[in-house]
């Protein structure tokens, strides 16, 4: 597999470099049939979905559907579309690869934590047909028709104890900033369920920004409000969970970490950057409300209409000619060294 090449300029200012290499499915929870999901009922709900004989209840809040009463991101059709675009954005950043670190040949078991719509899990299952891919999420929004026979979706909360009985060779966690109150617990579970010399890859986006900081801009108001609300909620937004000490405290050895400055929109002259930038812009614009609606209405007392109004103004700012917006995208690869 070819190594990914940079799309955005590196936020660290480093030049392109050769990526260094790093280098069965029985689950303790109920295994699922091909493309099927199962879930426990939510605490409260106004809308129910029936999927493969299981009942999956959604919580409707401010006209958005959520998988449970706590996770800040919705799981409705609008969000599923955004997740599909975000997946394409990640692969474009990685030069059509599925991971920053090459997945070793002979990999037998792969875990995708917080799979969302399952795009990454399905794609990696197709590229590694001999590997068994387990993909977990709290929401049942994965496809149920045609998926590779080696991918299994499970409804599972990664914040609870992981009870897989067999170890994994590669664990993938992507775009889950703000999902967990305690990332150290997530990393400890990942470490425990990796084979010796197994690989953990974490990828995420930070906060959108413009080429020149504009005091009092709606973007700065939005970012500040989200950080304040997240602190009150006991979660962290941004890229703090990807810092080396957090992973090392769980037992990992960080092999490499790189941050790319991805353009938002088509203002960069390079053709590939235009493609990645267009998808990143769509994902970011749609993600403004998805990230902030529950967070701000629950923890800072904002009204839903006020949240949507600010999101609309931020969208206008990011699309204004000459602003040159971008967003940091970080990839961190860690290993469970053989003892």
What does this structure look like?
- The protein has 339 residues and is of the alpha/beta class.
- The chain is built from 7 helices and 11 strands.
- The protein has helices at residues 77-93, 119-127, 183-192, 218-233, 244-249, 271-299, 304-318; strands at 9-10, 47-51, 54-61, 64-66, 109-113, 132-137, 151-155, 168-174, 194-205, 253-263, 326-335.
- The protein has an 8-stranded mixed sheet with strand order 1-10-11-9-8-5-6-7. A 3-stranded antiparallel sheet has the order 2-3-4, with no helix packed on it.
- Helix 4 crosses helix 6 (271-299).
Specify the overall morphology.
globular
Structural class: alpha/beta
Helical fraction? 25-40%
Termini separation: 28 Å
Q: What's the number of extended β-strand segments?
A: 11
Give a brief rundown of this model:
By secondary structure, the protein is α/β, with parallel strands linked by helices. It contains 7 helices and 11 strands.
Lay out the secondary structure.
Blueprint: E1 9-10, E2 47-51, E3 54-61, E4 64-66, H1 77-93, E5 109-113, H2 119-127, E6 132-137, E7 151-155, E8 168-174, H3 183-192, E9 194-205, H4 218-233, H5 244-249, E10 253-263, H6 271-299, H7 304-318, E11 326-335
Parallel strand pairs: 5-6, 5-8, 6-7, 8-9
Antiparallel strand pairs: 1-10, 2-3, 3-4, 9-11, 10-11
Helix pairs in contact: 1-6, 4-6, 4-7, 6-7
């Amino acid at each position: 597999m070819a190594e990914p090449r940079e799309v955005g300029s590196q936020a660290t200012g480093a030049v392109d470099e050769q990526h260094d290499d790093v280098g069965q499915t029985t689950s303790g929870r109920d295994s699922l049939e091909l493309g099927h999901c199962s879930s426990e009922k939510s605490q409260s709900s106004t809308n129910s979905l029936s999927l493969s004989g299981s009942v999956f209840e959604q919580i409707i809040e401010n006209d958005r559907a959520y998988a449970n009463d706590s996770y800040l991101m919705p799981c409705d059709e609008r969000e599923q579309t955004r997740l599909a675009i975000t997946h394409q954005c990640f692969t474009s950043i990685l030069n059509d690869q599925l991971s920053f670190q090459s997945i070793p040949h002979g990999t037998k078991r792969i875990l995708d934590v917080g799979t969302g719509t399952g795009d990454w899990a399905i794609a990696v299952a197709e590229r590694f047909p001999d590997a068994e891919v387990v993909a977990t999420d709290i929401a049942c929004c994965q496809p149920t028709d045609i998926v590779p026979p080696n991918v299994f979706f499970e409804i599972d909360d990664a914040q609870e104890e992981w009870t897989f009985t067999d170890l994994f060779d590669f664990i993938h966690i992507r775009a889950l900033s703000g999902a967990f109150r305690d990332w150290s617990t997530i990393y400890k579970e990942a470490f425990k369920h990796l084979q010796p010399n197994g690989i953990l890859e974490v990828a995420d986006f930070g906060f959108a920004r413009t080429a020149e900081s504009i005091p009092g801009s709606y973007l700065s108001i939005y970012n500040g409000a989200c950080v304040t609300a997240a602190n009150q909620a006991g979660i962290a937004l941004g890229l703090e969970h990807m810092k080396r000490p957090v992973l090392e405290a769980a037992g990992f050895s960080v092999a490499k970490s790189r941050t790319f400055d991805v353009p938002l929109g088509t203002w960069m002259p390079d053709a590939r950057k235009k493609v990645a930038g267009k998808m990143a812009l769509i994902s970011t614009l749609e993600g403004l409300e998805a990230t902030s609606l529950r967070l701000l209405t629950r923890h800072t007392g904002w009204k839903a209409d006020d949240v949507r109004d600010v999101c609309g103004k931020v969208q206008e700012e990011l699309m204004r000619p000459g602003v040159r917006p971008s967003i940091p995208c970080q990839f961190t690869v860690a290993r469970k060294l053989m003892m």
